[in-house]
Amino acid sequence: MDVHVTLTGRGDLAARIYRQLREAVLDGRLRPGERLPPTRELARRLEVSRNTVSIAYDRLTAEGFLVGRVGAGTFVCDEPPGRTLLRSAPAGGDVRPRAFWRSAAPEPEPGTAAFPEPGTGAVVPPKPGTGTAAPPPYDFRVGVPDAGLFPLETWRRLLARELRAALVRPAGYADPAGHPGLREAIARYAGVSRSVRAAAADVLVTAGAQQALNLVGRVLIEPGDLVAVEEPGYPPARALLRSLGARVTGVPVDAEGLVVSALPDAARLVYVTPSHQFPLGTPMSLGRRAALLEWAARRGAVVVEDDYDSEFRFEDRPLEPLQSLDRGGHVVYVGSFSKTLLPTLRLGFLVAPASLRPALRAARRLTDWHGEPSAQAALARFLDEGLMGRHIRRATREYAARRERIVAALQRDFAGLLDPVPSVAGLHLCARVSTGVRLDTREAVSRAGAAGIAVESLAGYCGETPAQAGLVIGYGAITPERIAPGMQRLAEIVRAAVRD
After folding, report:
1. How far, CA to CA in Å, does 193 sit from each of 185, 321, 365, 455?
2. Which CATH architecture has domain 13-76?
3. Residue 440, Cα to own-chain centre: how many angstroms?
4. Which of 347, 328, 329 is nearest to 337 (CA)?
5. Burial, 468: exposed, middle or buried (Cβ in 10 Å; 0-12, 13-18, 19+)?
6. 371-to-42, 188, 210, 368 alpha-carbon distances in Å
7. For the chain, what are the domain ranges?
8. pLDDT tens digit sequence for 84-128
9. Does the predicted model carry a pTM greater than 0.90?
10. Cβ contact 313:424 at 8 Å
11. What is the pLDDT of residue 377?
């Protein structure tokens, strides 16, 4: 490893090399067992005599920081004395973020604490000694697909092929709109599976739905603009729009979806999940879809349609997306492969009207230029070879069986406590607190977490007050055999949390 040593100014050069290498060992920059540069090489780089470097190395060796191995070189000792690990960036006490970021709830950094769960902020404790979040025994978290269903070997084969091909291509930056083959594949896939009206030129590949919303917001929203979201709705979308300087207002959702008549006239943008409302799960009726498109055309507003979880459908025929009904170019359609494949792949897309495409491409280029071309090319082949359809059919059967167990448990163990919200798709179910029942769902969720049950409160998805009372129960991450005992334990906790 290259070691940075500063020798500007006056003083004993060997002593300065010694002190800086010693500090690097103490604060962890040079790790136990790590090989240092040969004395001749370091002397050449520092433009000093080899003897000067040798004096520093010999002193560090004598003090137990380094060890020499004949024929191999000089290494940091496996157990160097007095490691401190105190090196960090300056505190920056006079430097402050914007007001929004000062009030935003910070997420613990990976490796230092547990990860917060969507909606409620409840956490899964880290696995002892690892610094990583351990899955709870009864994992009813929302928005978490089953990684075991991911076709890893197939994906590995496709990705390896693209990585090999990348080695013979000239190095350079890729198209901000995404891999051309993937854009074509997405246009076909979304057109066949969801009736989305799009050509490859209309598609922009993103790092998931959240980046798609960020790009749309960046090109459309001025600070102070009014933006409407569903209530209850997706908290990260609400927070992202607020971070862009928008005034965000919640619009109620009923059995037919977003209440269009409650939309504020001044709203510049509306974010909706019409195919599978998040988190309630109800689809937006055809009448409401038509009313929303009429409202957007009349107001010159943009509707961001997040087609959340629409792939996993268990009953009924899917309604047409807003984008396929839109004739005025007011809808931006957002899709993601985070639930169908894996969230860690960070692959999604948006389909935008032609008037927005140049600005969105520019925003993507300014944000992170482009995604990972090899992964995008692998996904293109995954779609073109029909592997996505095969995977979704298999996953849908598995998730349908888990959903049936959740529904049965709600009807059996939670009768008179929770009323399931009708839903025909997705990876979770929502259940509202029954009329007349006094239940603090946040308290119930906290008690459940202490008992090894990860579940979420509907209140965590509400931005307005009073928050709605209920539970949101995911079934993507939990194994089938754990559903019944987990739901039974959760029912006991809920009953104990009911107030007389």
Report:
1. 12, 11, 29, 31
2. Orthogonal Bundle (1.10)
3. 28
4. 347
5. buried
6. 38, 20, 14, 7
7. 13-76, 152-389
8. 666 677 777 777 777 777 777 555 443 333 333 444 444 444 443
9. no
10. yes
11. 95
Count of CA atoms in the C-beta half-sphere (13 A) of 432: 13
CATH topology of domain 152-389: Aspartate Aminotransferase; domain 2 (3.40.640)
Rounded to an integer, what distance in angstroms lies between the CA atom of residue 242 and that of residue 223?
9
| Residue written as token pair 């300065």 | 16
Amino acid residing at 492: E
- pLDDT averaged per 10 residues in sequence order, the chain, 500 residues: 82 93 91 94 94 96 94 91 71 77 60 39 41 78 93 96 86 89 95 92 95 96 96 95 96 96 97 94 94 96 91 80 94 94 94 95 92 94 94 94 95 94 91 93 93 94 89 95 96 91
Which amino acid appears at position 418 of this protein?
A: L
If you search the block for the tokens 């990583």, which residue do you land on?
132
- Cβ atoms of 157 and 472 closer than 8 Å: no
The single-letter code of the amino acid at 216 is V
Beta bridge partner(s), residue 77: none
Give the distance between the most distant pair of CA atoms in the chain. Answer: 85
